[in-house]
């Protein structure tokens, strides 16, 4: 090592050239590294969607959902599943254990579903498996024009889509909001009864008449000519004139128009989309992986401007979501925080050291950071808020090693040592301590890479970046710092402006050494005080996003159709448009927007739901300071003014999404009993202060017509259950018979009846598939009203009901849940298993995992210290700095009214490797002084005096480097920055006194 340092100094031109080369490659790497707002997360979950036409929820649960559940439990890594059985539809969401081989598990899932398909009832459609629940759109454009039809707006969207998808880096574009049409053949049931044909016959006739089968070719000598039979349907009139029956007596024909109305209409399943109250279609774009979407976005935006020049003035193309801009803004803000931190650190260095020394030390910052970008590019680490925060966290520490080495070199020069020798000997004197301090810091961050959870994956780039940048700073301090010191340092360089501060601390240390017992009692008392203060701090898993977007989920009464949902949504919009803080809003009726944020759950289209995305501008608002306040305000208005449905205002979640912070899951064997218990728990929650949006997913019974068939009587007429089910399903739900093609477009041909009332259904004639005889339904069945649960929910194969509640600003979910648990003792829970699955449980799960990592980190640090000091006792003395740092972190969180969140805990764990550095440098010098013959106390005084400047400077640089995070307003990183800053500050101040005192007690004279 000595030879390498010597070579670096002697060949300093080459050294400086290598540094310049690294800077160039680093800047290039920063330019091309993919950038995004937050890290990618691989959610180990999949959705299985199956349609069983005509089936009740109970039938769907028994014949479809139950069979799917029995299969998915066999998948490797299976954790649990949620299922929802509705009329005609089964939805099963399966979750895997974190760390499972996802690709292997999903291959098994698809294979099992393929094998299961044959076991499902006849008429059940193919099982649909969606394993990509995290695919998030990068661009959402709205195309609006009040004077244009939806079809015309779609045409403009198609023009945009055709050109933009050619751009390199764009994966695909999808048009959302197409108003698909269908040809409806509405058969008059009363007329149909006079003929021998059934609805099923009509379906089959249309299917057979409109089938296209390749006819082949006529080959003659050297020529081949294709043969094609012309289509039978060229227009709606062709369908109307289709012959569906011929009289046996006189040969007269019956055409479809004789007993049915044939017309084209838009499908009921179509989404209705509006942007700022105007009808619209959406163009949703997705980017390819590992692309710099900021650069791709600029090209997309340029292309959009070029294309829309040719659009009419009254057609507007608006950016509902444009991730490249969001990412650029987010990254730029954090880069600005990084630059601010760099400047603050450099200013501190210049204040604390002489001008020449400050130049040398400050060089370590840009060189270490830019070299980190090179490693990020090589390892495929993307630039986003978490990775840049890692750089900001490490920022102040990047000069620590350079400060210690430059201080050591300066002391040698001041003692009269020749400059080259001073550089070599100065590095040699502190090489082992700075190596140890670097390793202990890295050791503290290493266990954070082992967190086996989504939250751990979310923050995994932070410890990686800190470790990479610290190692880079170590190499810079070892080779670049002495090389620059040889060039710039002079004898008697200024010592900075901390001499008076040093005298003050020497006085405190003197008193502490004289009254050691009092010092120890003082230390114990502040540790006890910290415990009491900690109990006053709120607990939080992850904060809500401070992004200027909120969204509203709308749910209306069942079976009233999409028009009712649209009318309810209009009421919500009327309220929104009265709020000056709202910039724009986009609503999708009949479903949800394309997934525009990682934490938003997938929405299954249904006519009774809608979703609104709202953009805010609170900067000029006098009423609201943050999203919490406007969300609470809007929710109160919606709850008090709206009827006929619910509108739930939600904030975007950061980290691992959990939904409502209070979640009570009830499981058992009786779904109705679970519903009764859930109502009691709902009442309790509503009575607890601080709760809002208290609801459950139990669906109250609704009345439905049940057809009770007399099968003995039906069989006498040759009519089977299948005949009855098929005819009634076709009559009421409709059935696809074929496809009508016109002008390059396809329209499904749907056959249904005009039945509107119970009496009409009773008079529907059912045709026997054996004899061809037709019998009125009322002759073989009774139709009665029956109450039935419209949705059957299950959790891990048991019936389940989930009770949820949001929390108002100023209240804490953990405290509310504690009160709920106490009150649950007063209600009868027999036959019901109660489990909590909200924020408190996530805190326990993830904080416990971090706690285990902290223990592992302490063992790593102890092992490194033991190797350096070759002692069991001295590493324990150094580890005393860790509880001292916890005291500071708790005090900082309390004073700044910050919650003890996941990131705040990460800050505390990270401190373990940082705060020990001061004690390492201190004790290393004490040991050195004792070897030179000093007494224990004299050695302690001398070490505190000699190492005061590097310790204070390194602490000040680390703290000042974090200040931009504190004032950035980030709900995610502010608690972590405060935890780090105050923990380091308090620990350093106490270390300079307590560590020498404890050392003098533990270590005896040699």
Automatic annotation (TrEMBL):
UniProt-listed Gene3D superfamilies: Multidrug efflux transporter AcrB pore domain, Multidrug efflux transporter AcrB pore domain like, Multidrug efflux transporter AcrB TolC docking domain, DN and DC subdomains, Multidrug efflux transporter AcrB transmembrane domain
InterPro entries, alphabetized: AcrB_DN_DC_subdom, Acrflvin-R
Membrane-spanning residues: 14-33, 334-352, 359-380, 386-409, 430-454, 466-489, 518-537, 850-869, 876-896, 902-923, 951-970, 976-1002
Any one annotated GO CC term: plasma membrane
Pfam family, one: ACR_tran
Record key words, sorted: Membrane, Transmembrane, Transmembrane helix
One MF annotation (Gene Ontology) recorded for this entry: xenobiotic transmembrane transporter activity
PANTHER family recorded: CATION EFFLUX SYSTEM PROTEIN (PTHR32063:SF18), PTHR32063
Name of the molecule in the record: Efflux RND transporter permease subunit
Organism per entry: Caloranaerobacter azorensis
């Amino acid at each position: 090592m000595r030879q390498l340092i010597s070579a670096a100094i002697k060949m300093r031109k080459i050294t400086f050239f290598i540094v310049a080369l690294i800077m160039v490659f680093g800047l290039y790497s920063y330019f091309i590294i993919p950038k995004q707002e937050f890290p990618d997360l691989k959610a180990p979950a999949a959705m299985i969607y199956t349609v069983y036409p005509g089936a009740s929820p109970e039938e769907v649960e028994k014949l479809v959902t139950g069979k799917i559940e029995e299969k998915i439990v066999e998948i490797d890594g299976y954790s649990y599943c949620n299922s929802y059985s509705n009329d005609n539809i089964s939805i099963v969401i399966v979750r895997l254990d974190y760390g499972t081989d996802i690709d292997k598990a999903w291959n098994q899932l698809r294979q099992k579903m393929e094998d299961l398909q044959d076991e499902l009832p006849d008429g059940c459609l193919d099982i649909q498996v969606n394993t990509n629940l995290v695919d998030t759109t990068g661009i959402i454009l709205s195309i609006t024009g009040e004077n244009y039809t939806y079809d015309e707006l779609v045409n403009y969207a198609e023009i945009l889509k055709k050109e933009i998808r050619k751009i390199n880096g764009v994966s695909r574009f999808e048009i959302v909001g197409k108003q698909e049409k269908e040809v409806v053949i509405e058969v008059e049931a009363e007329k149909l009864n006079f003929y021998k044909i059934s609805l099923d016959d009509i379906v089959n006739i249309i299917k057979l008449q409109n089938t296209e089968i390749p006819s082949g070719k006529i080959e003659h000598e050297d020529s081949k000519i294709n043969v094609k039979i012309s289509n039978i349907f060229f227009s709606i009139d062709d369908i109307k004139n289709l012959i569906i029956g011929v009289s046996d007596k006189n040969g007269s024909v019956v055409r479809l128009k004789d007993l049915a109305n044939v017309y084209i209409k838009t499908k009921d399943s179509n989404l209705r989309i509006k942007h700022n109250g105007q009808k619209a279609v959406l163009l949703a774009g997705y980017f390819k992986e590992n692309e710099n979407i900021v650069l791709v976005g600029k090209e997309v935006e340029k292309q959009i401007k070029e294309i829309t020049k040719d659009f009419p003035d009254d057609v507007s193309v608006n950016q509902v979501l444009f991730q490249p801009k969001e990412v650029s803004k987010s990254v730029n803000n954090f880069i600005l925080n990084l630059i601010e931190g760099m400047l603050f650190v450099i200013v501190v260095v210049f204040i604390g050291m002489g001008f020449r020394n400050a130049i040398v030390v400050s060089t370590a910052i840009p060189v270490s950071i830019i070299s980190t970008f090179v490693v990020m590019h090589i390892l495929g680490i993307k630039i986003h808020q978490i990775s840049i925060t890692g750089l900001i966290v490490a920022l102040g520490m990047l000069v620590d090693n350079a400060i210690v080495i430059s201080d050591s070199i300066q002391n040698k020069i001041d003692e009269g040592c020749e400059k080259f020798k001073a550089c070599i000997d100065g590095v040699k004197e502190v090489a082992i301590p700075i190596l140890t301090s670097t390793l202990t810091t890295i050791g503290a961050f290493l266990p954070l890479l082992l967190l086996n959870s989504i939250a751990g994956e979310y923050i995994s780039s932070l410890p990686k970046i800190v470790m990479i940048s610290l190692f880079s700073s170590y190499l810079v301090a070892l080779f670049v710092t002495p090389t620059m010191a040889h060039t710039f340092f002079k004898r008697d360089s200024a010592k900075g402006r901390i001499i008076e501060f040093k005298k003050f601390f020497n006085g405190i240390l003197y008193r502490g050494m004289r009254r050691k017992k009092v010092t120890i009692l003082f230390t114990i008392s502040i540790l006890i005080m910290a415990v009491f203060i900690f109990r006053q701090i709120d607990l939080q898993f992850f904060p809500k996003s401070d992004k200027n977007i909120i969204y509203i989920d709308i749910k209306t009464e069942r079976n009233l159709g999409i028009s009712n949902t649209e009318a309810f949504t209009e009421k919500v919009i009327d309220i929104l448009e009265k709020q000056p803080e709202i910039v724009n809003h986009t609503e999708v009726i009949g479903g949800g927007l394309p997934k525009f944020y990682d934490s938003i759950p997938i929405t299954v289209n249904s006519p009774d739901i809608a979703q609104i995305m709202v953009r805010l501008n609170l900067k000029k608002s006098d009423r609201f300071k943050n999203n919490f306040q406007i969300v609470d305000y809007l929710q109160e208005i919606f709850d008090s003014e709206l009827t006929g449905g619910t509108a739930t205002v939600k904030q975007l979640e950061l980290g691992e999404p959990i939904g409502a912070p209070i979640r009570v899951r009830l499981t058992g064997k009786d779904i109705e009993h679970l519903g009764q218990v859930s109502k009691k728990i709902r009442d309790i929650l509503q009575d607890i202060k601080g709760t809002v949006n208290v609801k459950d997913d139990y669906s109250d019974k609704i009345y439905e017509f049940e057809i009770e068939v007399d099968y003995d009587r039906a069989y006498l007429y040759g009519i089977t259950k299948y005949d009855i089910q098929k005819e009634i399903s076709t009559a009421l739900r409709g059935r696809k018979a074929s496809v009508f093609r016109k002008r390059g477009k396809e329209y499904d041909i749907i056959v249904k009846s005009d039945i509107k009332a119970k009496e009409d259904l009773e008079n529907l004639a059912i045709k026997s598939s054996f004899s061809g005889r037709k019998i009125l339904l009322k002759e073989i069945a009774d139709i009665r009203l029956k109450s039935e649960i419209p949705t059957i929910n299950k959790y891990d194969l048991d019936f389940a009901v989930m009770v949820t509640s949001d929390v108002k600003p100023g209240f804490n979910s953990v405290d509310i849940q504690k009160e709920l648990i106490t009150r649950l003792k007063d209600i009868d829970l027999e036959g019901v298993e109660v489990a909590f699955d909200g924020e408190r449980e996530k805190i326990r799960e993830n904080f416990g995992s971090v706690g285990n990592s902290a223990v592992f980190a302490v063992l790593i640090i102890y092992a490194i210290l033991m190797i350096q000091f070759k002692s069991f006792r001295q590493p324990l003395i150094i580890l005393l700095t860790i509880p001292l740092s916890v005291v500071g972190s708790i005090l900082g969180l309390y004073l700044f009214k910050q919650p003890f969140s996941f990131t705040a805990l990460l800050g505390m764990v990270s401190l373990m490797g940082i705060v020990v550095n001061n004690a390492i440098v201190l004790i290393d010098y004490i040991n050195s002084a004792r070897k030179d013959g000093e007494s224990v106390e004299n050695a302690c005084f001398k070490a505190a005096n000699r190492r005061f400047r590097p310790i204070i400077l390194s602490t000040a640089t680390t703290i000042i480097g974090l200040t931009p995070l504190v004032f950035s307003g980030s709900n995610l990183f502010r608690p972590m920055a405060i935890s780090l800053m105050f923990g380091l500050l308090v620990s350093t101040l106490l270390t300079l006194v307590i560590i020498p005192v404890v050392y003098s007690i533990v270590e005896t004279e040699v």
